[in-house]
Amino acid sequence: MTHTEIYKPDQVRTIRYQRPHLRPENDVQKDAQKVIQLVAERCSLDLDVLLGNIRTQRVAQVRWVAMHLLNQLLHMSLPAIGKALNRHHTSVMVGLRRVDAQIVADAVYAERLAEVKSRNAESAARYFSKNARDWDQIRSHHIAEQAVEQQLLELIGTQHFGSLLDVGTGTGRMLQLFQDSYTDGVGIDSSLDMLAVARANLDASGTSHAQVRFGDIFNLPVARNSFDVAVVHQVLHFLDDPARAVRKTAQALRPGGRLLIIDFSPHHLEFLRDENAHRRLGFSDELMSEWIEDAGLDLRSVTHLAPENPDGNALTVSIWLAQDPRMLMANDLMADDLISSTSLSPMEKV
Length: 350
Fold this sequence. Notes:
Blueprint: E1 2-6, H1 25-43, H2 47-55, H3 63-74, H4 78-87, H5 89-105, H6 107-139, H7 145-156, E2 161-167, H8 173-177, E3 182-189, H9 192-205, E4 210-214, E5 227-233, H10 242-251, E6 253-264, H11 271-276, H12 285-294, E7 298-305, E8 317-323, H13 326-342, H14 346-349
Parallel strand pairs: 2-3, 2-5, 3-4, 5-6
Antiparallel strand pairs: 1-7, 6-8, 7-8
């Protein structure tokens, strides 16, 4: 059973941005090789470890060294380097993909990369085996995930957008679900075990234009105003301060960017607190609307998905779609100015 309420009649618009000018491919590859070599020498890291960290996006383990090496190579201050990386996020992502392609083309690197992926897959399988029973128990109380995912695809629409942020990515499912809709995807999670699962799933599905990173939802390792769509899927009920998580995620959105929050409606399944570490037993529309407004976003729609045959232990899945109003407000002002400039005065009409 599906119930959707549309809060505003105007169609949700996706803002597309022109990519910044990219440096020549040879320069990108040469600089990348130099940085990788210097990082390995400075950290005395085994090449397998370093390659695994880079390819699996465990950036936190080498970030501070890489920043200082860029400081030496480019003769720029650390704050200036940080600002440049944030400002040219898209071109950096494209450059990383080019480096990835060169690494894979090298037979030795490709063999070692295959070993890293194999270890990730084995780790993911062990973690799934250990936790599958708990997940299956929760799934048995709510509507099929396929129905939820179909609703998410309908809400986002078919128009392509630039970048997707998946906060609390878990298995990486949202990155896979929307893989045909975005150009670059980033998933954040604070569990190394779940990141191993996500990486294995992305590799298996061929989702090469997405990456996952270790990070804290309250201190996201991404730049502000840098994503077209952000997703928080079944995460907030684990948090002590979900309102703050909504605000932090909203800060990562570009003007006109959209936020999808998927979680449970209010329920009374107390066992989820003790057995599954749930801090909140669902969220009301009123409370979520307040948090979204406090984050500076406009609530666009609310959808409730109830199980086919609900019982006393049924969980209703709720989907809240919000949008950053900044670009929309600017467009409305421009439209008003255009109307004013083309309107005839009473004297002219005569």
